Structures are given as structure tokens and as C-alpha cells.
Amino acid sequence: MPLRLALAQINTTVGDFAGNRDKIVGRIDEARSLGADIVVFPELAVTGYPPEDLLLKPDFAEAAVRTLSEIVPASRGLTVVLGCVYADTDLYNAAAVLHNGMLAGVYRKQFLPNYGVFDENRYFQAGDQRLVFSRGEVLFGVSVCEDIWYPEGPPQAQAFQAGAGLLINVSSSPYHMGKGLYRERMLATRAADNLATVAYCNLVGGQDELVFDGHSVVFGPEGDLLARAAQFEEELLVVDVDMRQVFRSRLYNPRRRQGRGIGADGFQRVELPVGCVQQAPAQVQARVAPLLEPVEEVYRALVLGTRDYVLKNGFHHVVIGLSGGVDSSLTAAIAADALGPENVTGVAMPTRYSSAHSLEDAEQLARRFGIGFMTIPIDGTFQAFLDMLAEPFAGKPPDVTEENLQPRIRGTLLMALSNKLGWLVLTTGNKSEVGVGYSTLYGDTAGGFAVLKDVPKTLVYDLARYRNRVAGRDVIPQRVLDKPPSAELRPNQKDVDSLPPYEVLDPILQAYVEESCGVAEIVRRGFDEATVRRVIRMVDRNEYKRRQSPPGIKITPRAFGKDWRLPITSRFVES
Fold first, then answer.
1. Reported pTM
2. Which terminus of the chain has fewer Cβ atoms in its 10 Å neighbourhood, N or C?
3. Using an 8 Å Cβ cutoff, are 254 and 229 in contact?
């Protein structure tokens, strides 16, 4: 009889112990009703991920342990593998194995990531125990996220030394472009190398700047894909696993015999009696969800990240400054898809430099998406500022100072609407602008969440075209996509007056920011040296702006957030 696995790909909230508990128990009950033998949850499902410095609060750790004890009785009739915080003499990132209403054992994560967005050495002690679980004829090992990324990590020892045929990994692996396919290749390799079935359960949902894509999978011992959950959606993925396939693969492949028995005595083997476990009903058809296309994947990540940030923080309505440009148009589209158009308001705030077509484009976009729309002209306010500053500015020619007054007035109005009406302000700057500081501090950077903060300008256009393609019509007006980008803060202004073309700027930024390339290496890729040096200097000089900008969704391997930690005060210059 096959083993029935259920992977509970759930969306948790950090610190919502009651809500997370109820969701976990609900999925356990659902898995039981479907005849599952083992149900698996993501890493730190009890606390939500990542808890960050909440882990340094004793009350938080105590609540985590208490909530785990409240979940244990729900495991009657099946086995549960649950990501949690575990405390004895220290604090551990762990996977608890619950069986028939009892806590049967706890695996402690051994490889603690401390790079990029991860700081686990700050909070956790690494585990070192060697542990496998025996459930009837099935011997399985458990690991946590990073443990399986290493070829010679704990899963290899569990398979080759202890003989485990099923390797379960509980994970909270954040999304970025391209990571899903890379992760699948890694997991297929682990399954084939260890001649074992690999069941990988990942978190889904948004948490501050991170988005988790779900994409839970099961691979057979030949590296064959048995099941795949949807990306960016909650799902209970149920799959029947024929453990005889593992036995057959190992009979025909002598590699694992070389390691079998080496150090096996060092493993603790926990027996899980199965007499009380219900027999599974008729075999289920395993679901293999199709993978999303790259642009759709990014769009779905932005929608999920926006929805969860807004709703998990207690907001229900957002407001966006609509300029008639592509950035604010895409931000409005994402917000409408995330929250419903009735929960989005766009505000046009024209001045003497705003073109008539930009105001028309903003109105058309609002109408096509069905979002709220209002126009608040600010030219009178702008002139009042110019009049107030006329005396101290006497004798000095107009420059960027006067230009920046306009976005600062707009930011003040949007924040006033936020204060009075309880709306969250979404800023509209993209990664290209954030990278080189092409923004106004306390102006267009003023807000609560930056949807496009990690989206390069060239990708902004791709996403806008994708949204029109999905709609089957130009919900984002075609003129928005065709006209040259402009901040419209002075007559006939264009972005290329201040920046290299985005087709040049974006690959330079990718090389410098995401790949840590220096000047010489970027120039070897075919870029003008003076342009490269100029862009790098702009990036380095504008760290102070990035530190004061709102959080935004990470969708690239290296975003301007936790994985970008540069000093503001620095005299280092790229040679």
C-alpha cells in the first residue's frame, strides 16, 4: 500500500499564534479526512517566518512553545511534521514530529544560513543530533530548509547511513526570479543522489519585504517529479508515494551500499506505531501544477506581497499618486488585483508642468480598472511655496530645488489622506530610480509600502504589457507605454536628461548591485566606462535615500533591503 503524504503549503502571519494554530489544526483535520499518513508543514509555521528579533523576547519564545503543545493533540490518527521554535537549554529552529496525539521527536536545524536576508546565527543554536523516524515499514528523515541545500548535509546521512527512504524537508524559502526552477533542480538532484523520495514543503505568502512562493514538490528516487503545488497559493498537496520504488532503485544502484552502515549506530531511531492509523482510501491522482511564465511569476509575487503587507498590517484601502506614467499605472494595477478595485484610490495632482495627456491617461487607467479617482491641482500650493522662498532664493537661478517642491507637496497630500481616511500610501518608484537616487526624499518616497522597489524599469514595462495581455485589452493605456518616461517637474523634461537610457542603466545596475561586479568587469561587458563610473557613483552616493525609503517586495537575488548593507558614510570609490 502506498504512503499518502499531504504537504500543507500555508500562509502564516508572524506572531499570530492563535491564527497560525487554527490554520495548522484545520489542515491536519483536512489531511486526516483525505486519508493522509503524514502531513507536513513549512519551517517555523507555528511562529510565522521570519520572526527576527521577536525571538529575543522571552514571552515570544514561551508563546511559541505553548502553541506547539496546543497543536500536539490534533495529531491523533496520523503523523505531523511541523516547523517550530524549540527551546531546551537554547533556542532552535526545529521540526517537531507529532504522532497520534504525542510529541514523538524534535529535529533541530543544523545548517543555519547567515547571508542575504538570513540572520539565523543571531537567534538559534545549530542542532547536531542524528535522528530518523520509523513509521511501519517506512523509515524517514526530517530536515529544515537550508539543511537540504548542501549535498553532504543531514539528508544524505539519513539516507545513506541510517537507510531512510523518505526525506522530508520543511522550508520557508523566499522567492526571487529564477529561484523556483533552480530549487527544483537541486531537490531532484538530492532525490537521485540519495536514491530516496524527497518531500519538500514550502511557505507561501508575504512577510514585509519577502514573498514566499509555495511551489512545494515531491521527487522520486530517480529525480522524477511526482507532485507540484501551485505557486503563490495556499494548497494541501496530496500524493501517494510508492516506497517500493525506493527499494527497487537501491537494489539496482550500488552507490548507497558504500555508505550504508557507516555511522549508523550514531542515529537515534524513533518508532511511530501505526496500528491506530486509518487506512488510506483509493489512490489519489497526484497534482503537478504548471509552472508560471517568468513575467507572470513576478506579477503574482507582487500581487501577493502587496495584499499580505496591506491586510496583515490592518489596512483595507490604499492610495496612489497617479501621474499618468507607467510606474504609477502598474502600481495601481497590482493594487487593484491584490485588494479589489473598490479598495484603491488614485490621486492626480497636476501642476503647470503636467501634460494634458498625462492627466487623461491617469483618468483612463482609473476608469478601466474601476478604482477610485480624484484630482487635486497643486499649482497654487506650488506657487505659494515659490513666493515664500523668493527672498531667500533671490539671485539664484531655478534648479532641482524648485522641481522637488512638487513631489513634496504631493507626498504631503497623500499622507494627509492617509491620516484622515486610514488609507495606506503606496509609493511608485522602481529599482532603477531607487538605485541611482532618482527620487525626491520626503516627496515621491513618502509612503508606507513600495510595490516596485525591486523591479527594474525595463521589467516595469514588461509587467505592464503582460497585464494588458492578460486582460485582452489596454487596461493600461498604450500611450503610457509609448511615451518617453518623464517626471514632468520642468518644461519638456525627460528621464534621459538625467540618466542613461534604462536599457543601458538596468544591466549596469544588475551587474553592480546583484552580481557585485566592479568597473572593469562591467566595461568588459560592452558598456562605456564613463557611464559605468557615473552609475556606480550615483548608487554609492544615494544610500542615505534608500535608508529612508519604505519597504518593498524583493523579487531579484539582491534587493535594496536586508541583503544590501552598505554604510552611508564611506570614502571608498570603485577603481
1. 0.94
2. C
3. no
